[in-house]
Amino acid sequence: MTRATLLALLAGVALSGCARDGLSLVETPPETRWRAVTTDQDRNRLRDWRKAWVAALPAARTADT
Question: What is the pLDDT of residue 32?
Fold first, then answer.
C-alpha cells in the first residue's frame, strides 16, 4: 500500500466518523424559549420588577449604613 493510498484511506475513515447517522447520543434539549416555558406568576414578576426594586431600596439603604 502506498503512502498516498494509506493517507486517503485514513482520511476517509476519519471523516466517516464525523458523519451524522441520524442517531444522537445527546437528547434534544428542552424548550428554552422563555415565552413558552414561563408561568403567569413569572410574567407578573417580570412585569412588576421595578415596583419590587423601588420597594426594596429603603431596606437596602438602611442595611448599607
Answer: 76
**Dist. CA 55–CA 49, nearest whole Å:** 10
Cell of 11: 482520511
What gap in Å lies between CA 48 and CA 58, rounded to an integer?
17
Residue 46 grid cell: 417580570
Over residues 5-63, the pLDDT tens digits come to: 988 888 887 777 666 665 666 677 777 788 888 899 999 999 999 999 999 999 999 99
Count, residues in the chain:
65
Going from the C-alpha of 58 to that of each of 40, 42, 46, 50, 54, the distances in angstroms are 28, 24, 21, 14, 8
Is there a contact between 37 and 31 (Cβ–Cβ < 8 Å)? yes
